[in-house]
Amino acid sequence: MFRPIPPDIRRSIEEARRREAEAGPDYDDEDPNEGSYPPRGPKKPVLKKRRVETDVLQLIAKNHDVEMVNNLTEFIVKFHGPPDSEYEDGVWKIRVELPEKYPFKSPSIGFLNKIFHPNIDEASGTVCLDVINQAWTALYDLSNVFETFLPQLLQYPNAHDPLNGEAARMYMHKPEEYKRTVREYVARYATEKTPAGAPATKKAQEPETSATWHDSSSPDDDDNISLSSLSEIDPDDVASFEEFEKEYDARMAAERNQQKS
Questions:
Q1: How many Å apart are CA 34 and CA 32, to the nearest integer?
Q2: How many C-beta atoms lie closer than 10 Å to residue 165's C-beta?
Q3: Helix or strand holding residue 158 (H, E)
Q4: Confidence class of residue 37 from pLDDT cuts 50, 70 and 90?
Q5: E strands, the chain, where?
Q6: Residue 89 pLDDT > 80, yes or no?
Q7: For residue 122, what pLDDT is reported?
Q8: Which of 17, 40, 153, 225 is the most buried (most CB within 10 A)?
Q9: Nearest alpha carbon to residue 120 among 166, 80, 83, 86
Q10: Distance CA 250, CA 227 (A)
């Protein structure tokens, strides 16, 4: 038995599908001179929407907290520093924007709270990462970004192609000072505080959602659609989404047929 998709996620997807249905069928015809049947299949915009929905749900299924900013094309992901590194105790908010041609064009990502790293601009949060900026292919997805690419970047900086020159010089010539500075930035800008009076939690436990952020650059909370209980979703929800998708498509088709009759 699959667990239900959280209501906020379901509403976001249903709203996207409703707008898609109101816009009318979006198909390529085999021959425009011979009518509209049989359809060759959905055009790229429809395929893109389905790919985005799947990518976001897979990201959530892997216990990444997500806040929607603009439907499913712009959102914020909570990213934990990789273990066994100077960034281990850090938690960052990363803004993700999906371009119109995603997944054929790479997502834009940026750190909202400060981080000290040779390949991340301290002021803007811009990330210099070849696999995202130059070598991206449609075979990659958002899980690759947060499960592999970013952790590897933090653990193995490329000081020869820096966005933060000071961090790059320190990394190459003063490694101990670099590690100390990284830890200072983590403590100052990337630590979730336990609310006053709350019992202390173990390091392995997920921080409380009411934790206070050292983040002066994050968007207004009023502009975000918070997706509740995201960290509790298990991987079976991706399969649950597929069932929901079939059910929803069938319902929309029935409504369209009813309107025609």
A1: 6
A2: 10
A3: none
A4: very low
A5: 27-29, 39-42, 66-70, 74-80, 91-97, 108-111, 225-226
A6: yes
A7: 95
A8: 153
A9: 166
A10: 26
| CA dist., res. 89 & res. 183, Å (int) | 9
pTM over 0.85: no
State the architecture of 49-190 in CATH terms.
Roll (3.10)
**Is the sign of the CA dihedral 210, 215, 221, 227 positive or negative?**
negative
Query: In whole angstroms, how large is the CA radius of gyration of the chain?
Result: 21
73 token code pair? 């094309």
Q: What percent of the chain has a predicted confidence (pLDDT) above 70?
A: 57
Length of the chain: 261
Token pair listed for 62: 């892997």
CA nearest 78: which of 216, 215, 252, 248?
215
Residues identified as active-site:
128
Q: What integer best gives the mean pLDDT of the chain?
A: 74
Q: Is the pLDDT of residue 159 over 60?
A: yes
- CA separation for the pair 141, 56 (Å, rounded): 9
pLDDT of residue 258: 74
Query: Where exactly are the structural domains of the chain?
Result: 49-190
Tokens at residue 182, please?
């990284």
d(CA 121, CA 127): 7
